[in-house]
């Protein structure tokens, strides 16, 4: 717990132990509501990314320790009162499937909320703890024809890609076959005038391949007293068949199945992007237990375990370095192109990649509570948010379907009372066909899918339809620096020779760095190659984690690294060289001092250069009426280079 006192208020930071208090947004709101009701509390907010609670209090009325005690007590009570489970859902083809599952599970008495994230194929359930209703969730969903797997919100390896045989039986393959049979049936019917019943046989096959899944889904939903567009589409197709209109039945089924397949394909691309994030976490970890080291699943790590991370391995869990020094790349988490030197006492993120050193790391969070898992959870929650237009269409569709069914039944039952005759059933079935909401159910999701896919082709990842629709009203845009306004990889930006020429300085540094696997070393070698420099041979190269590299060139020791490395090796670094290095570091660059035979030859600077098109892109955003802002830990020089 940390606190920063001021004259009138005190801001208290309380870590949320184990993440239980943040299991869902509702629990976070309950926690904040109870804390805001305490006398002396002025503001309270939750930072889900850092898993911390920030409370501003009047220190004269409420002490920092009392805030921490109250927050942890409320969090413990919430964890004991409410349970949460996350399931991976299989077998969903469309958003109607998700709605049927939500309604069925939400009908259980002790289930407080059930939210299906169709893009991520997951369902999150909140329920009253200590009740048996949660055990009915799996059989209830399986009765609808779907599968559930309790993942307990743990980050782990992404599911394996489907086999070739399974891809042949995929919804896309079935829709393609349905379309081919529809086309063949129409050709036989109208172009070749083939005799009956061959055209109808092909059209029947088209209906069967394209429609049996949503027909079964509609019937299962009906068993659970849920009426959706799946059922209406099935009845519309059945009505067309009863009327003898096989072409209309096959066309209705194919168009509906095609729309659902296009949406599912776009969602699969989104799931793969999530899978790339999940794969950032390793599946195994090496734990030190006494004098031995044991390999265990990363998901089984607990707080306090001592993990050994070898060179090149991924960090298996959030933790703190207790032994060793190494450069660690946090690009998967922060997007930063350059690795950071880590030593005892420094924090590490799960999914980061270790450099050349060996680290002993004390685990500070379980896999389900790691920074990577929280980022993944936030992304999935963002994807689950429906756009206002899409939500409106779904609400209207839930009312529209029962109205259409009731109207058809009423027409068939009451029509003969007004004018006796056999045509009323025919007219009722016709109503089902013409009232089939193909345009409604296809147009809205496909419009959002098309927009999201088009943005993805240009390298813009939109997390969901809600955010795509919100862009229309945007007036300000925040741009990440690394990899967005910059190239995203280190390059040599400055060469400051103190003794000798720039080429001599660069060639010596590159010869020493040639055997290094560090990204900064690779940038130095690449810069020398661009100038066509001949590198002298370096021997006895040795990397000093977090400091630099040393080697012998033509029998003379050469050092490339930080000021601290040179001073540790007895090299005198003048104040002028230090000033040059500091000036470059203030620009957000990493500096390398080069010394030969105990004499400093100069300074190299390595940084992430601004994209050539960045300034034009920022200017174009301004012409669209958007006010751009840069998000960076560097100074204003980087923003100015990008045109901000």
From TrEMBL:
It comes from the Bacteria. The chain crosses the membrane at residues 226-243, 399-418, 424-449. Its EC number is 3.6.3.3, 3.6.3.4, 3.6.3.5. It is a multi-pass membrane protein. Residues 83-149 form the HMA domain. It is found in: Cell membrane. Belongs to the cation transport ATPase (P-type) (TC 3.A.3) family. Type IB subfamily. This is Lead, cadmium, zinc and mercury transporting ATPase Copper-translocating P-type ATPase. It comes from uncultured Armatimonadetes bacterium. The lineage of its organism: Bacteria, Bacillati, Armatimonadota, environmental samples.
């Amino acid at each position: 717990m940390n606190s920063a006192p001021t004259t009138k208020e005190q801001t208290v930071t309380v870590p949320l132990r184990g993440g239980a208090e943040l299991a869902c947004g509702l629990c976070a709101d309950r926690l904040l509501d109870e804390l805001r009701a305490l006398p002396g509390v002025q503001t309270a907010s939750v930072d889900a990314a850092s898993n911390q609670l920030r409370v501003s209090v009047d220190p004269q009325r409420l002490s920092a320790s009392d805030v921490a005690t109250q927050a942890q007590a409320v969090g413990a009570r919430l964890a004991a009162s409410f349970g949460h489970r996350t399931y991976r859902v299989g077998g969903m083809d469309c958003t109607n499937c998700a709605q049927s599952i939500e309604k069925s599970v939400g009908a259980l008495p002790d289930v407080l909320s059930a939210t299906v994230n169709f893009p991520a194929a997951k369902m999150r359930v909140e329920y009253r703890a200590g009740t048996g209703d949660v055990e009915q969730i799996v059989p209830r969903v399986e009765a609808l024809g779907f599968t559930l797997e309790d993942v307990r919100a743990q980050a782990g390896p992404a599911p394996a890609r489907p086999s070739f045989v399974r891809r042949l039986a995929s919804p896309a393959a079935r829709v393609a076959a349905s379309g081919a049979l529809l086309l063949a049936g129409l050709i036989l019917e109208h172009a070749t005038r083939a005799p009956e019943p061959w055209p109808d046989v092909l059209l029947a096959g088209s209906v069967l391949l394209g429609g049996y899944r949503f027909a079964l889904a509609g019937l299962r939903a009906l068993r659970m007293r849920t009426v959706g567009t799946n059922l209406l589409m099935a009845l519309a197709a059945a009505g067309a068949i009863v009327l003898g209109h096989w072409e209309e039945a096959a066309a209705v089924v194919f168009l509906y199945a095609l729309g659902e397949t296009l949406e599912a394909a776009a969602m699969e691309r989104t799931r793969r992007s999530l899978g790339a994030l999940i794969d950032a976490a390793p599946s195994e970890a090496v734990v030190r237990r006494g004098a031995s080291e044991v390999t265990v699943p990363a998901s089984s790590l607990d707080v306090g375990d001592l993990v050994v991370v070898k060179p090149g391995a991924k960090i298996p869990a959030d933790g703190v370095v207790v032994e060793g020094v190494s450069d660690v790349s946090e690009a998967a988490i922060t997007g930063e192109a350059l690795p950071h030197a880590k030593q005892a006492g420094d924090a590490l993120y799960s999914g980061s990649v270790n450099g050349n050193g060996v680290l002993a790391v004390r685990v500070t969070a379980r896999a389900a509570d790691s920074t990577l898992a929280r980022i993944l959870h936030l992304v999935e929650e963002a994807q689950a948010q429906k756009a206002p237009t899409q939500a409106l269409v779904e609400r209207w569709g839930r009312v529209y379907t029962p109205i259409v069914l009731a109207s058809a039944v009423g027409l068939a039952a009451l029509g003969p009372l007004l004018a006796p005759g056999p045509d009323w059933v025919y007219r009722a079935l016709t109503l089902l066909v013409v009232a089939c909401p193909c345009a409604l159910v296809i147009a809205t999701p496909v419009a959002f899918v098309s927009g999201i896919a088009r943005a993805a082709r240009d390298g813009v990842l939109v997390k969901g339809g809600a955010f795509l629709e919100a862009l229309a009203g945007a007036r300000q845009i925040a741009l990440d620096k690394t990899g967005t306004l910059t190239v995203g990889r280190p390059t040599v930006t400055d060469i400051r020779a103190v003794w000798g020429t720039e080429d001599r300085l660069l060639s010596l540094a590159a010869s020493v760095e040639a055997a290094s696997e560090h990204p900064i070393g690779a940038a130095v070698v690449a810069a020398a190659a661009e100038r066509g420099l001949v590198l002298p041979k370096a021997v006895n190269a040795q990397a000093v984690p977090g400091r630099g590299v040393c080697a012998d060139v033509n029998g003379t020791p050469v050092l490339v690294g930080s000021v601290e490395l040179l001073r540790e090796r007895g090299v005198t670094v003048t104040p002028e060289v230090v000033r040059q290095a500091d000036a470059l570091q203030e620009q957000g660059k990493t500096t390398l001092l080069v010394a030969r035979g105990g004499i400093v030859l100069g300074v190299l600077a390595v940084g992430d250069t601004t994209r050539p098109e960045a300034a034009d892109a920022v200017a174009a955003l301004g012409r669209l009426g958007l006010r751009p802002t840069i998000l960076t830990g560097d100074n204003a020089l980087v923003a100015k280079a990008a045109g901000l």
